[in-house]
Task: structure prediction
Amino acid sequence: MHSDDFESRLAPLWRSAQSGDEAAYRAALALMATRLRSWLRRRMSSWPDELEDLVQETLLALHLQRGTHDAAVPVSAWMFAIARHKLIDLWRRRGRHAELHTSLDDLDEDQLPGRDDSAAPARRDLLLLLESLPTAQRDAIVLTKVEGLSVAEAAERTGASISALKVQVHRGLKKLADLIRSDAA
Amino acid sequence: MNTDQLISMLASQAGAAPRAVVARRLGPALALGGLLSVLLVLSTLGAYSGSLLGTPAVWMKLAYAGALAAAAVALTARLARPVARLAIPLRALVGVLAVMAALGAGAWAAAPVESREALLMGRTWSSCPWIVLGVSLPTLAALLWALRGLAPTRPALAGAAAGLSAGAVGALAYALHCPELSPTFVAVWYSAGIAMAGGLGAVLGPRLLRW
Result:
C-alpha cells in the first residue's frame, strides 16, 4: 500500500474516531494494525515470534496516547513515530537481556528442569497461573474472560476506568502467555 | 488475545479522544515544581531586602527567566507529542537568548574598562550557576514525571527541553534572592545554570522517558 494512500484512507476514519465514533475507531485500528504488521515485519526479522506482540503493544500505545495526536500532523506520521519508539524500546530490552541467556551446556544436570515432574501439570493449571499475576490484572481477566462481563461492566465492578481495565486485560493476558510459554519450555 | 480481539476491546466504548492532555499533565507539574523551587530559595537562602524590588535589575532578571521559561515550556509541550513541530518555540527560545546576550554585551561595552570585570563576575559568579541548577531540580523532576505519561519520541531532546524549562524556573526563583544587578552577569551566569539544567535533562531523558 502506498503511504499517501494509507493516509488518505486512514485520516477520515481517524477524525471520526477521535470525536467518538466507535465503528470508525475500530476500522481505523484494524487498518493501522495491518500497516503496522508489514512495517514492523521488515524491521524485526530477527524476532519473528515477537512481531504480533509488538503490533499489539503499538496498538495499545496508540490507544492510550490518542490524545497526543496533533490534528495538524498526518495521522500516519504520528502512528509511525510511535511504532518506531516501540521498536527501539524492544531493541533496547533485547540488547540488555541477550547476555542473560545461559547455554544449557553450562548447567549441571540437577539444575535442569524436568526431574520432578509431579509439579508440572499443576503449574499449568490456569487458576494457579492467574494467582501469580498482579491483583488488578487477575481481576480484570477473571471478570472479562471467565465471568464474561463487558469491559464497561468489569470497570464498574472494579472501580477502575475503562481505559485502565483494557490495559490490565492486555498486560495480564500477555503475562499469562509468557508464563505458559516458559512453563512449557 | 489475538489482535482482532484487542482492537475490539480497545474500541469498545472508547469515547472521544481526551482533549488538552499535554496541558493537563505539564500544567500541574510546572505549578508544583515551580512552587517547590520558590520555597527552596526562600527557605534556604531567603528573599533579598525589599529595596531591591524597586530596581530595574530585578525586573530584568525576572523578565529574562520568565520569557525563557515560557519558550522552553512551549518547546517541551511540543516534544511531549510524537512528530513534534519545533520551529516556533525554538525561534522564541533563540530570540530570548539573543535579546539577553545583546543586553549583557551592551552593558559590558558601555562600561569603563576598569569596571568590566565586576560587571561580568559580580560577587557570586562561582555559586550562581550551581544554585540555579540545584533550585531547578524539583521542577525538572516534576516535568520528567509529567512527560513519562505523555508520548515523547525524542527523549534526549524532550529531556533537554524539560531541563531548560526547569532551569529557567529555577533562575526565576533564584532571582528572588540573587544580589547581582548587572545584565552582563545575568546573561552569562544565569544562562550557564540554565544550560547545565538543560544538559542534565538531556542525559536523564533517554533513561527516564520510557513509555
Remarks:
- The helical segments of chain B are 3-11, 21-44, 56-79, 87-110, 116-121, 128-148, 155-174, 183-208.
